[in-house]
Give the backbone structure.
Amino acid sequence: MALQCHDRLKRLIEGVSQIIVGKEGVIRLAVTCLLARGHLLFEDQPGVGKTLLSQALAQALGLQFRRVQFTSDLLPADILGASIFDREAGTFVFHQGPVFTQVLLADEINRATPKTQSALLEAMEEGKVTSDGITHALPQPFFVIATQNPSSQIGTFMLPESQLDRFLMRLALGVPDRVAERSILQGQDRREMLRAMPEILSWAEMQEMQGNVRKVHVSAALLDYVQDLLEASRAQGRGLSPRGGLALLNAARAWALLQGRTMVLPEDVQDVGAPVMAHRLDGDGETALRLLEETAIP
């Protein structure tokens, strides 16, 4: 099971890495997030390839992709949809918003007001949208990739803790190194490469692997280690919630499966620890890194 998953996921990562050059580590974490059925938050400067990575992941898995540009005047109905009166039918008809897709890119999410940001909460957590008391199920899978600008920029609204907690990981792409950037400058246009990119894995295959994540073994000693991290985070003040602990464990399971293993090692927790914990703690990652360094490994 594990080796078969490893080979399939390796093909996926290699395919996406042809589009996003020199960022295999970030791509591996993004695939881990998808394996663990989580949502992904990018905080980075414009122009480093966040949108391109989102589109490449969707296309490599044959998933429907939509993008919403968040602005200060965006309303919840612009994302979720609204009920509009149909004169011919004599009743209100719900018109779906762009959230009804499989991969949603919420671009510059912290430029929208808190009211609009919170409109995504139910969709991200429950996989459904409620309008006028009627619940509408979202397509499956439903995967949100959001980008946000640094909070120091003008015109941003900081995401509340409840919204941040819905994201399994927060990542940064960063600028490529000199060799990768030279490849980008000299190579084929990335948009053209994306249009020619074939489906690498079917969603049925990815769904099967998502189910295998739950089968990855977690020992009692590993659970002790995760609980030690949770307790250490709470001793610092605002620590990780039980949901944060589950997020850390699920991400570690998915990371282990990505490596071709059927059991979680402490190293797996350390590899995913900072992306999972940083935005749930101080935001800059220093507390998460210190906890990972100071907590004893079993």
In short: DSSP finds 13 helices and nine strands in the chain. The CA atoms of residues 17 and 169 lie 20 Å apart. The mean pLDDT is 87. The first strand starts at residue 39 and ends at 43.
